[in-house]
Every structure is written in C-alpha cells, then in structure tokens.
Amino acid sequence: MQRHPLIAAVSLGLFAGAATSTALAEATPLEQQLKDLESFQVIAHRGASGHAPESTMAAYELAYEWDVDYLELDVQITSDGELVVFHDDTIDRTSDGEGEINDYTLEELKALDTGTWFNEENPDSADTAFDGAQMLTLDELFDHFGHDARYYIETKSPQLNPGLEEALVETLEAYDMIKSGRVLVQSFEQDSLLKVQELNDDVPLIQLVWYYPSEEDDSRLVEWTGVTPGPAEITDEDFQEVADYAVGIGTNYLYDGREVIDADFVKQAQENGLPVHVYTINETEEMKHLMEMGVNGLFTNYSDRLLELVE
Fold first, then answer.
1. Is the pLDDT of residue 226 over 70?
2. Is 87 a catalytic residue?
3. Which of 11, 29, 154, 197 has the most Cβ atoms closer than 10 angstroms to its Cβ?
C-alpha cells in the first residue's frame, strides 16, 4: 500500500522549522487537522457518557459545552439503510428493547427509550430529562453541531453492517466533513478502513488495536485481529504498514489490570508517524500516567476530569 501524499507530507514535517508560521497560514483545514493530532487530544467517548446516557444528544451536548477536541461515536446501519449512532450490536443494554440493532428500521428504533436505563444504573447522575431519549442518527448529530465540532467515528461491526462504509462516506461528503478537517474514522477492522480509503482517500483513518495475553502463552501479548504483532514483538516495519493507510493508532492500555503498552511502544509508534490515542481511560491517576508516557490523546467517559489535567 502506498502512503497517501497528505499523510506523508505531514509526517515528514511539512510544518516544522522556520517555515512553521507560513506553512500553517497556508494549510488546508484537513492539513491543519492532521497537524493538530501531534498535540494532546481530549476524546469524549460516546459523548460525556459518565454523566449522561451514552451516544445520546444529552451526552454529546455536555461534551461539546466542555470544548473537547473530538466527539467519539459508533455508527451502525438500520434494516432500512439509515446510519444510527449506537455502540452495541444488540439494543438490550441501553434501551427498553431487545434484539439485534440491524433487524430494526429507523422508525422502530426511534420508538425506543435509550435514556432511562442510565438513570436506573447511575442514581447519583440521574436526570429526568434523560428519560425517553431517542437514538440518534448521524444526520441529526451533524445537523446539530455542524462544523463546530470534530467527530471521531468508528465503523462498528462492519461484518454485521453491509454497506456501512459506503453510507458513511456518502454522508461525510454530503456534510463536507472530510476536507473541512472535521472527522476521523476508526475501526478495529483493517478491511473496513481500506474500504473507506477506496471510497475517499482523503478520509483520515485510525487503526484500532486491542492487545491481550495469548491463550497458548499468557506471558505473550497478541492483537485481537492480527493487524500487528504484540507490543513486545512489533517492529518499525509493522508500524509502517499501518502508517501506509492510517494517520494514527488507537490502543488499549490495560487488559484485566495488566499494562499492555509502555512508553517505548508510544515512542516507536510516534517515530513511525503514528500518534497514539488510548481508550478508555476514566481514572485520574491513569490519565496522568499515560500523559507522562507521552500519548497524543485519551478516550474517556469523563472528559471533565481529563480537561482539568490538560488545563
């Protein structure tokens, strides 16, 4: 795979040195977005989901009010071809319905209550305004925030969502989210990212990875989809293969309380042109530790805690 020229230019230091101010003045919005990834990013995981029902307008409005860098979301496709903002493959956990999300039309999903569960499980954060919250469409989210926000979008379970990438790219283009530097697209599935790239090679892509102990040897870490070797075995060439299509890497930090990445992993990824974003970090001490390791951003349900540290 050939690295996209825009990614290559930024990673080679297009904006570095004495020409920085001139380069920035001439940078396109998309180039500026990629440059911004070198600094620390606060990524609101499913919105302010520690304080409001995940993936609802209330959660995204709160995160937006806090001025986070990215609103993070998952997109899936309904049985009638509409893009909805929802994480799980089934609707049981965060709605009053049951079954697989893809079996429902948008109208049927809109009839569900995706807010009351939060009040029941989080009495300290409960708000009657959350009751009856409707599932969001991607169009509704874009219509609400427009280009005033940046969006970090995961193609969720692409094998269960045929046509997801085509529908997503079409929507991103319709709202001019790509060249305006408003969106990152992430996925654990490399094939999904490559499909997005085929559809529009300007879309900045983030390769998600998940490291965990091998079943054969629990002292050895492996990656869920095999897109890279484990952190102890990963080479510059492995990172370069990811950098051929992606502008960053998103990784877990812990597995069952065990650290799976360290400062050397972060540094090596960055030296190969891949900013490192870590998910999903909610405790202040872990936030501090990862910031000291030099990561480029954190996904969190509690953006308020992270913003206090950044400020």
1. yes
2. yes
3. 154
